[in-house]
Amino acid sequence: MALKGTGIWRRLEAHRDHLAGVHLRTLFADDPDRARRFSHQSGWVHVDYSKHVITDETLALLRELATAQGIEAWRDRMFAGEAINTTEGRAVLHVALRNRSSRPMVVDGRDVMPDVRAALNHIRTFSEAVRSGGWTGYTDQRITDVVNIGIGGSDLGPAMVTAALAPYHRQGPRVHFVSNVDPTHLSRELQRLHPATTLFTVASKTFTTAETMANARAARAWFLAQARDETHIAKHFVALSTNEAEVRRFGIAPEQMFVFWDWVGGRYSLWSSIGLPIALAAGYGRFEMLLDGAHEMDEHFRTAPLADNLPVTLGLLGVWYASVLGLESQAVLPYDQLLARLPAYLQQLAMDSNGKRVTRDGQPVDVGTGPLVWGEPGTNGQHAFYQLLHQGTRLVPCDFLVGAESHYPLGDQHALLVANCLAQSEALAFGRTAEEARAELEAQGLTGDALEALVPHKVFPGNRPSTTILYEKLGPRTLGKLLALYEHKVFVMGAVWGVNSFDQWGVELGKQLATRLRPELDGPAPVTSHDSSTNALINEYKRLRGGSVSGDQGSGNGRR
Ligand code: F6P
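^ Those are the sequences you sent over. The predicted structure of the assembly is below.
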């Protein structure tokens, strides 16, 4: 399904060339109503996309593209439970997990909602028991700490949401997240914990992911070193998974298993049993509010016409940049410390989903697909990488996210945060001309050659695009809506490109090679079975392991 040669694509390219010389300064000067016309407002949020170099024609052309690519039909097929994840023959129905209506959601002719409600009920009863102290450990002590062991979608979503809902962590256990197979991660968490008061949630859709299983086995050994009796495992280990056979094989009984289904993709799974740590930390009621918020966004995405459909608009802007302008990256800049892990979460959501080079039918995509997604919370990023955003040679579209209020008011600090956020998008859009830079330098008393030498360094070209998402004080419902908004944005982009946004074959080769390479790290014998670079790295690893060339002696593992 070539995009490039099509009529609509040629018109988009011509339109892009036409806009090449247009500056946001002019667009705003010519249309006093621009901010209102290029924004989306509903009760909880104000989304401003007026600071993109676009016109009504840009959006009209992009919507024409969306229609030509069958966006609405693909969306409807997703909600109808069709197997749109074609390479795995699976439905894509995370929207069922947060379906708060009485509408059935059907996969293979069967309404999955009774199963979804039963799984939610399991989360509710268990999280309430742990939080109230009704569920105790093997010495009858209350659970004070939960360690979630999982990686990728079984880590990033629940970890990000749990952190974002920190203001609601009252009475609940402390929840820790261990993902990395680097033994440092688990060891450092366990150093602070006691087996008798710690609960492990082993989160893995497949229950075969090497990193998670290695960490889970290590956690079990740590627990049994103290508890001694394997029957105590039942009080301290639960599984969040789709794979009952593997869960049993690990030694967790089915009663200790929180289920979900193959039609829930890993990176879309925080709404499922994978969200148990969220309910443990913030309470089941907050978890339900998160689902409520996501459902509201689902309904908007499902029913709003393309022109008023927020995920569609943001997704089409994403296509505009990644494919029509050929930009490489997209920054996510939450001016909200509670959303510190949002960029990492969105990285997986976007890059696992749309980091694809062939269409569903295996043909090469002839335009750029999923951009690199990266970011840090403001204002930290301002003092790190914004220099490049403002004056570098690359154009990086930015998403600014900011709440209207903080859960933690402290003097005027939140207003200072908001001022910084709004100032950054203003500076990116409008910049500073040479004349303005000159006037400022003159006001500082500079003249002549000294002044002229500085002028080019003080110029900000501006015309750098951004979206600002301004929401009420961050709570579970708002968060649910924001996350569903990004999920559907990613869906729209993938549907325009014709890729399967729901598989991730690209992670397989590295996993296979690691399994093959692992035994070669043992023993002193030099390895010659790979290319010369990999051979040399393995052999140097053997030389450096256990050595003391640098003089950094001692274990240094923090244990006393
Ligand atoms: O690395 C690929 C991947 O399959 C991700 O898509 C997924 O979120 C992660 O691994 C973890 O998988 P699982 O939940 O099966 O352990």
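The mean pLDDT is 96. The radius of gyration is 26 Å.

Shout if you want it in another format.
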